[in-house]
Amino acid sequence: MAVPIVANVVLILAISLLVGLLCTRLRIPPIVAFILTGIIAGPYGLSLVSSTEDVAILAEIGIVLLLFTIGLEFSFNRLWELRRMLFVGGLLQVSLTFLISFAIATLLGVPLGEAILLGFLISLSSTAIVLKILDERGETGSPHGSLTFGILLFQDIAAIPMMMAIPFIASITTAAPAMALSGESLLVMLEKDLLIVVILVIAARWGVPWLLYKIAQTRSREYFLLLLLLICFGVGWLVTLAGLSLALGALVAGLLIAESEYSHQAIGSILPFRDIFLSFFFVSVGMLLDLDFLRTHLGIVLVLILGVILLKSLTAAVVPMVLGYPLRTIVLVGIALAQVGEFSFILSGSGLAYGILTPSTYQAFLATALATMAATPFLIASGPGLADRLCRIPLISRTLGARCPVEPIGPTRLRDHLVIIGFGVTGKNLARAAAHGQIPHIIVEMNPETVKRERAAGEPIIFGDATNEAVLREAAITEARIAVVAINDPVSVRRITDLSRRMNPKLYLIIRTRYLNEVKPLQELGADEVIPEEFETSVEIFTRVLSKYLVPRDRIEEFISEIRSGAYQVLRNPAAISSSLPDLIYRVSDVSIISYTVHPSSPVAGRTLGEINLRKVYGILVLAVVRFNETITNPGGETRLEPHNIVVIQGTAEQVAMAASLFGVPSGGSEGRPPKEPEPSPTEKE
Predict the structure, then answer these.
(1) Hey, which CATH number is domain 418-527, 2.40.30.160, 3.30.465.60, 3.40.50.720, 1.10.10.10?
(2) 621, 650 in Cβ contact below 8 A?
(3) Global confidence as pTM
(4) Which numeric CATH code is attached to 2-385?
(5) How remote is the C-alpha of 334 from its chain's centroid?
(6) Pairing of β 630-633 and β 621-627
(7) Distance (Å, rounded) from C-alpha 26 to C-alpha 58?
(8) Using one digit for the tens of pLDDT, what is the confidence trace for 436-485?
(9) For residues 286 and 280, what is the distance between their CA atoms, to the nearest angstrom?
(10) Helix 327-336 and helix 298-323: axis angle, to 10°?
(11) Is the per-residue pLDDT at 371 higher than 70?
(12) DSSP symbol at 179
């Protein structure tokens, strides 16, 4: 019986790898590759998999583990940090998308329950796809990346009550009234829900922490993983008794562990299993798509795809517009959230099982959702270009572009000053240094909350998108001596570099970027210095390593200058590194510096360094003696080693090891006697 299951799994894995390689070349996310695998191998494709039920079981496990890890990652502190983007932006996007989708479905004559569910499905976007693409593009820390993340996080939270509402939506759906509440009255279900909540509260307060602590004491990863799976599926099963789904129960199980000190270890233990089984979920989704239905209703499906992308883009764009972001952020956020999400697949499956969705509606939704997910990488890539084109349209530029006008910093115009674009960690430190050095400067920032807060604190900061020429003019870029660009959007950085250079050919332009491959393009656009974070980090690391090997500071600085002057190419060529490193590193590699505590019974306790003569006997040098709160550096021969003093010595590894016995408890009959001096060699006698 197990052989067909194994054969199906092997076949799916093989097809996934082949399709994945092709999708990688086209820069399509792995999730889309798994969906295409299901379409190819499923019953509506080539029918290569004999039993889709086996895949469905694996997919169910994937969904359970997905929601379990989401629960583990839930943090009230994290929500508080993103509260404005989350509760204002996320609530606005989900509510607006739901209401418009519900209204359109109702106008088209869709039944009430089905219209509500369709509103739920369309209001959610794909967290996995969007965040992965933004991370690959280096835009997670940008204004549109942070806002997009906050909205997606709210959507994940909103999916919880949506899943809980499925049975109640079924109760008002005429398609399956008998199935709605499984014959139980609403009062009985509420009583059962209340009992389960009480059990979960008790478990969260006392049971689960105690179990985790006891298993953690065993220091067994296997037992810890077994306990996690027990909590995940055990709580999931308990929640199913209330008529809710196993997946929702897994989410609750994750929440039980989220605020404990074991949550990070739990996430690390579960992630590999989640990723494996979740891939089967997307494969199973692809298997459900009926290609015959798609061919028959291709026109309708295309209209739905375009309609969903347009609707979601516009409703998502309202959020940054209301929060006061500029036109560029409005466009990029709207484009990023234009697809249907993975939680929508879970909700639609439940809706089909409860009879809320008809099979034809379900197939139309599947085709639309899969197409919008597949189009996401291309839509996000087109976002910056679309924003630039919209900025050139006079009507849009006058309305949206000037909706949050750039506020002047004062009546006097700056001259020969520093322009700081971006007020993250780098921008803040640079502004602080400029203020300390009394250097005139101005800051350009896109986050309206940051601008408001820092303006109140006295910072010379203006709001605006530095890709806009009007904003740079307000920052007096044409009169500036230096400009530093420190933002996380690579596309915006390139445009700002080009625009700044054209506006002020004499400007000294310093660009901070994340990756080395951005250095050359930015230099070609006019940057005087490009500082890539990844290699500056490596410079700091190897500086400390070389210092530990006692390489002189001037030699280290010389090597760093060589690296930076060659645009970091030395670090990319191992041969260049070996030829550039100082030879001294190899000559001093055996030198050790170590400290010992003088034991009261050791041979050196109570004796002076002159009496012990460590340099002559053992070839080691005493660098310092620490005595209570006193540190004696370069101690002389008269320095006495008292019990419990700390002695810092230097020598080769062998010399230091041989001297170790002097400071500890003596062995044999050597107690109380100083080390014996070695016999002189024949040469010394002569």
Answers:
(1) 3.40.50.720
(2) yes
(3) 0.66
(4) 1.20.1530.20
(5) 21
(6) antiparallel
(7) 28
(8) 888 899 999 888 878 888 888 888 998 888 888 888 888 889 999 999 99
(9) 10
(10) 140
(11) yes
(12) G
